Structure to design on (212 residues):
């Protein structure tokens, strides 16, 4: 899952408009930001298996970012830091971080440890790529409808939000295009680049809102 994770970001921003959107977007991918960094460092591991349906990722070792205990810890720390910065609204940031693990549970094959190292779970929508994409787009599309309605109520321009949404669709399209196999470190670096773009475009939405 990629853009589907951002549904939680959009819902958090709609519920708490004073939260910076860039922080909401970053929170949705915080576990994967940690994952990409640890893959580059050689701490967490993956294999690429082109015979797998849907995603070719065999994520066989990622206890420090994608085990349930690690996800809970990252969520608590992020929520605590955000609450110190943005008050009680910051607790939504922690919830967005945790949502990443829950949405991964839908699409991943059994590679998410319930303990630090196992047993592993995952409902495997990656094995049904068309259905998986429908779920992703459906989650984000529904969240966008809520956000756009809230922006209209608050007399905020809709165009910046729609622009971010279309930028995410472009990123998702690029991500879906098959290419030359990358090394694990290359996969981690590519993921970090995609997250940086998503956060940067979200910051532009914040900037546009501040100019109103």
């Amino acid at each position: 899952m990629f853009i589907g994770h951002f549904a939680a970001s959009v819902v958090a921003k709609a519920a708490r408009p004073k939260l910076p959107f860039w922080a909401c977007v970053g929170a949705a991918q915080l576990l994967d930001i940690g994952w990409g960094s640890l893959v580059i460092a050689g701490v967490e591991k993956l294999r690429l298996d082109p015979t797998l349906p849907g995603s070719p990722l065999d994520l066989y070792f990622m206890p420090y970012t994608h085990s349930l205990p690690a996800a809970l810890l990252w969520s608590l720390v992020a929520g605590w830091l955000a609450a110190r910065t943005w008050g009680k609204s910051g607790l939504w940031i922690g919830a967005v971080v945790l949502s990443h693990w829950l949405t991964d549970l839908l699409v991943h094959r059994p590679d998410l440890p319930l303990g630090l190292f196992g047993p592993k779970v995952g409902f495997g929508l990656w094995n049904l790529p068309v259905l998986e994409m429908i779920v992703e787009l459906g989650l984000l599309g529904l969240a966008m409808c809520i956000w756009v309605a809230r922006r209209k109520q608050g007399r905020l321009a809709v165009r910046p939000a729609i622009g971010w949404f279309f930028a995410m669709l472009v990123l998702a399209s690029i991500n879906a295009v098959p290419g030359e196999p990358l090394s694990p470190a290359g996969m981690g670096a590519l993921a970090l680049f995609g997250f940086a773009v998503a956060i940067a475009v979200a910051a532009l939405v914040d900037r546009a809102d501040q100019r109103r």
